[in-house]
TrEMBL record:
GO molecular function: 3-methyl-2-oxobutanoate hydroxymethyltransferase activity; magnesium ion binding; methyltransferase activity
The name this protein goes by in its record: 3-methyl-2-oxobutanoate hydroxymethyltransferase
Cofactor(s) needed: Mg(2+)
SUPFAM superfamilies: Phosphoenolpyruvate/pyruvate domain (SSF51621)
Family: Belongs to the PanB family.
Pathway: Cofactor biosynthesis; (R)-pantothenate biosynthesis; (R)-pantoate from 3-methyl-2-oxobutanoate: step 1/2
Phylogenetic classification of the source organism: Bacteria, Pseudomonadati, Pseudomonadota, Gammaproteobacteria, Enterobacterales
């Protein structure tokens, strides 16, 4: 099987073909997801909540992400893997280089960092050193204590324009993908149309270039799932069919629908 690359994802955007991605944390699920046709997976710091039982992503370490990246890589050798840089693991250039090197050596194809234009210099330095970077704007879970909870972002014009400005600045600095979380559908569309790089939405409406879900949300495991989540397992009765349905509905634009989106 041919490995999935950034060039493949860029081509999908050019062809206006939507694609589905998902979080993965171990070899077994990674293999199952790849088998059903998901070619991009995120080893997310969401594992702090889904696997470790914490109430936020903040306790997750670089070593935690590296361990799970190795597991996912073993199960999905040809998939494109994005690994989260955890809280305070990229606060300085030196930290960023060390954290990124650890994750890339563990099997990541790309690292993901949360934040706006203040990260532009970090993005530039990492990409100059052969580390592909995915940005993350909107609701950034590592900033939960600044936001005062998990709240929809960009609902007024001022904050929406600031988010768009940040997205364009990050693209200019060198990010090659952007995750956009918990923003109104119209803003998701606006950002996706403004950027040349693929934009992957999670709670950002169905007009972004791709979608991502935490696997526990997609399979109905989460006790109190977010508004944007959909239990695909409930509709199908088995995991493989659930993942195929998720892919089909993302590619057709049926998911996320109005019930899973923000105005």
């Amino acid at each position: 099987m041919k490995p999935t690359t950034l060039a493949d994802l860029s081509q999908l955007k050019k062809e206006k073909r939507k694609f589905a991605t998902i979080t993965a944390y171990d070899a077994s699920f990674a293999h199952l997801f790849a088998e059903q046709g998901i070619n991009v997976m995120l080893i997310g710091d969401s594992l702090g909540m889904t696997l470790q039982g914490f109430d936020s992503t903040l306790p997750v370490t670089v070593e935690d992400i590296a361990y799970h990246t190795r597991c996912v890589r073993a199960g999905a050798p040809h998939s494109f893997l994005i690994s989260d840089m955890p809280f305070m693991s990229y606060a300085t250039p030196e930290q960023s280089f060390s954290s990124a090197a650890t994750l890339m050596r563990s099997g990541a194809n790309m690292i993901k960092i949360e934040g706006g234009s203040w990260l532009c210099e970090t993005v530039k330095m990492l990409t100059e050193r052969a580390v592909p970077v995915c940005g993350h704007l909107g609701l950034t879970p590592q900033s939960v204590n600044i936001f005062g909870g998990y709240k929809v972002q960009g609902r007024d014009e001022t904050s929406a324009q600031q988010l768009l400005n940040d997205a364009m600045a990050l693209e200019k600095a060198g990010i090659q993908l952007l995750v956009l979380e918990c923003v109104p559908t119209a803003l998701g569309q606006r950002v996706s149309e403004a950027l040349e790089i693929p934009v992957i939405g999670i709670g950002a409406g169905n007009l972004t270039d791709g979608q991502i879900l935490v696997m526990h949300d997609a399979l109905g495991i989460t006790a109190r799932p977010p508004k944007f989540a959909k239990d695909f397992l409930k509709e199908t009765g088995n995991i493989r069919d659930a993942i195929r349905l998720y892919i089909e509905q993302v590619e057709s634009g049926a998911y996320p629908g109005q019930a899973h989106s923000f105005k």
